[in-house]
Automatic annotation (TrEMBL), chains A, B:
<dbReference type="InterPro" id="IPR008136">
    <property type="entry name" value="CinA_C"/>
</dbReference>
<dbReference type="Pfam" id="PF02464">
    <property type="entry name" value="CinA"/>
</dbReference>
<protein>
    <submittedName>
        <fullName>Damage-inducible protein CinA</fullName>
    </submittedName>
</protein>
<feature type="domain" description="CinA C-terminal">
    <location>
        <begin position="208"/>
        <end position="356"/>
    </location>
</feature>
<dbReference type="InterPro" id="IPR036653">
    <property type="entry name" value="CinA-like_C"/>
</dbReference>
Length: 364, 364
C-alpha cells in the first residue's frame, strides 16, 4: 500500500501555516504519505505528474487551491476516460463514488483518489480516504537502538509485527509497529511491556500521555523556559484539554525576568551565569512557587548560532524537572543541529526528565 | 528549474524533529523542493523512484539514513553507469565533482545530485547544491488579494517579475517574487513600496523584521498568551539574537495564573470570562507592568475542539497589542481550522496588530 499527497496551486506552497494544517489533517487519514508533490496549476507537467502519481500509489489525496479545482477535475476525468458531470454543484468526474461540497472520492482499479478543494483560513472539507493499515506508534525510553533491536526484534517476529525504531533523542526511541495479516499488536505490546518494565509508553504522543496521566491523578504542571523560549508550553498546549493540568509557563528570556518573575538569585546569574545547573534549579523552584503546581520543567542553554564560548559552546543546555516534594533531576547536554533543532531536542530531554521524576504516574 | 528532495530510510520518516531540521536546512539551498519523496531502503521501488526523480528534476538532494548511504551510492552509480570509488573514506560514484565527509555532489547532464548521509541528533553534513533562482519573499498588509492583483500585477509585469501571492491571514498577504532574465527585483520593490506606503514589509520573515526594527530602535517586547499557549514566544525565539528585544513571556493558561501573574481582575474573569476584550486588555497591561517592556501582545480564545459555546464558538479569539504609552488595538476573531491552525492564525493576527501599534517602527 502506497500513499501519495499532491498539492496543486503554487500559492498553497508558500502558505506554511495553512500547509501545516493540510498536512496534519491528511496524516490522520493516510499516516505519513510516501510521496508528496507540489505543483503549480500552470506547470506544463501537471497532467504528467498527476498520471504518474496516481499510477504508483494506491491511495491518493489531491489538494487543490480554489482556482485549480476545476482544472484538476478535468485532468482526472481525462486520465480515467470519464466525462465531467454536475454533482452537488461541482463539475466532477462522472464515476465519483462519494462527494460532498468541495470534495469527492473516486475508486478506480483498486485505487482510491480523493480530491479536495481548499481555501486559506477556512476549514478543510471532509477527507473520505482512510488508510486501513493496522499500525501504531509507541515510545521506549532508557534504551539504545542496538539493545532495542536485540530485545524487541525477536518479540516482534513472534507476533508477526514489523517495527521501525527511530531515535528521537539519546535514550528515547519512537517505534512504529505494523501488524502483518495474522499479527497481534495488543499481545505484542503486553509482551514488550513485561520485557521492559517502566520503559514503554504505549501512546503515539508522549506529551499527550503525560497530560492524560497528570489529569488522571489530579496533578498539575508548570514550565520555566529560557532557551526553548515557549516551545515546551506550545508543545503542551497543542493538545486539547490541557487546561486541566497545565497551569502556565514563564518564558524568562532576559536575565532580569529570571530574577523578577522566577526569583532566580542575582548572585547565581553573576557567578554561574544563566546557563548553569544552579540557575535551572532556581527556575524550577521559582515556577513551582509561583504556580503552586505539582511538577515543573525548566530549560536554560545556548541554542546558537551565536552566544557560545569555549566553556559553554553552542548546544550547551541545562534541562531539569522537579516535583513539589523536592525530587529533582537536572542534566547538562551538548546538542548539535541548527537553533530550532537544538531547542526541540532540549524540549524532549526536559520531558524525558519529567517522565523520570514522575515515574509513578507516567511509567507504570 | 525543478528541485526534488528524496529521503531514504524509513526511520527518518518517523523522526519529526529531525525531519524538520533536514527540511529547514534543505530549503535554505533549494527554496521549497517541488517534489518530496520518502522511501524505505528495503522498498523494491527504490531504484525506480530514484531514477524517476532524477530524470524529472534538475536539482536533487538525496538524504539518506546512516544505514542506507552505501546502497543509495550503488544505485546512483548504476544509474549513471559509473563505478564506485573510494574517496574520503566513502565508496561513492567515480565522477563526484565535490565531496566531504558524508556528502558528495554529482553533475550529470546539466543536473546536480547531492547525496548526504545523516545521523539523528548530529549536525548535517554541508549541502553543496544551491538554487540560483533570484527570488524573494515579502509581505503586504492591509490589502486583499484582488486589490493586490489589480495594483501589483501590472508593476510586476513592468519589471519582468513573476509574483505568487498567498493569503496568510485576512489582510496579510505573503508574496513570492521571481525575477525573469532581465527583471529587476530591487526596482520592483521600490515601486511597490511607493505605490503602497506603510503596507510593504520587504523581508521574507515578518517576525524577524519586527525583531530587527525593535533592536534598531532599542525597544523591547513581551507577550501574554492564553490560547496560543507559548506559540508566539516560540515564534519569536526561533530567531537568533532575539534576546536583545524579547524580555519574556507569560503563558497564563489557568485563570488563577491570569490573576496572580498578570493581575487580571477576578471580577473581569467572572463577569466577562477569560475570552473577552477586557481580559486581553488587562493581560496587556499586566505583562507590560511585569516586564517593563515597550510593547506587548496578548491572546485569549477558544482553540477547540472543545470549550465552545453559542455565544463564543470554537475559533473565537481575542488578540491585542499595546505600547507603554497606552496605544492599544484589540480584535475579536472567528477562526476556522483545527486547534493548531487556529492557534497559528491567532499568532499572526496578534503580530499584525503589533505592526499597527508600532507602525512608526515597523512600517516605514
Amino acid at each position: 500500500m502506497k500513499s501519495s499527497l499532491i498539492v496543486v496551486g503554487k500559492a498553497l506552497r508558500y502558505n506554511l501555516p495553512f500547509l501545516n494544517y493540510i498536512h496534519s489533517t491528511i496524516t490522520k487519514h493516510l499516516n505519513l504519505p510516501d510521496q508528496t508533490v507540489y505543483i503549480d496549476k500552470n506547470d506544463k507537467d501537471l497532467f504528467f505528474v498527476l498520471e504518474e502519481s496516481i499510477s504508483h500509489a494506491d491511495e491518493i489525496v489531491i489538494v487543490t487551491s480554489n482556482d485549480s479545482f476545476n482544472l484538476v477535475n478535468k485532468v482526472i476525468a481525462t486520465l480515467g476516460e470519464e466525462t465531467l458531470e454536475l454533482k452537488g454543484g461541482m463539475l466532477i468526474p462522472s464515476k465519483a463514488v462519494r462527494y460532498e461540497t468541495d470534495c469527492y472520492l473516486l475508486a478506480r482499479e483498486g485505487k482510491y483518489i480523493n480530491v479536495i478543494k481548499t481555501t486559506e483560513n477556512k476549514k478543510l472539507p471532509p477527507i473520505f480516504i482512510d488508510n486501513t493499515n493496522e499500525s501504531s506508534l509507541f515510545s521506549i525510553i532508557n534504551i539504545d537502538e542496538d539493545s532495542l533491536k536485540i530485545l524487541v526484534e525477536p518479540l516482534a517476529q513472534n507476533y508477526e509485527i514489523r517495527i521501525t525504531p527511530t531515535t528521537i533523542i539519546d535514550g528515547w526511541i519512537s517505534v512504529e509497529a505494523v501488524s502483518n495479516k495474522y499479527g497481534n499488536l495488543e499481545s505484542f505490546f503486553k509482551a514488550v511491556k513485561s520485557l521492559l518494565p517502566q520503559k514503554v509508553i504505549q501512546h503515539p504522543d508522549v506529551i499527550e500521555h503525560i497530560c492524560t496521566c497528570l489529569e488522571t491523578h489530579g496533578k498539575t504542571l508548570s514550565v520555566a523556559e529560557s532557551c526553548t523560549g515557549g516551545l515546551i508550553a506550545s508543545m503542551l498546549t497543542e493538545h486539547s484539554g490541557v487546561s486541566a493540568v497545565f497551569k502556565g509557563g514563564i518564558v524568562s528570556y532576559a536575565n532580569e525576568i529570571k530574577a523578577s518573575w522566577l526569583g532566580v538569585n542575582e548572585e547565581t546569574l553573576e557567578r554561574h551565569g544563566a546557563v548553569s545547573e544552579l540557575c535551572v534549579r532556581e527556575m524550577l523552584e521559582g515556577v513551582l512557587n509561583a504556580s503552586l503546581a505539582d511538577y515543573a520543567i525548566a530549560t536554560s542553554g545556548i541554542a546558537g548560532p551565536t552566544g557560545g564560548s569555549i566553556e559553554k559552546p553552542v548546544g550547551t543546555v541545562f534541562v531539569g524537572a522537579r516535583d513539589k516534594e523536592g525530587n529533582v533531576l537536572i542534566e547538562r547536554l551538548l546538542l548539535e543541529g541548527d537553533r530550532h533543532y537544538i531547542q526541540r531536542q532540549s524540549a524532549y530531554h526536559a520531558f524525558k526528565l519529567l517522565l523520570h521524576v514522575g515515574e509513578t504516574l507516567f511509567l507504570k
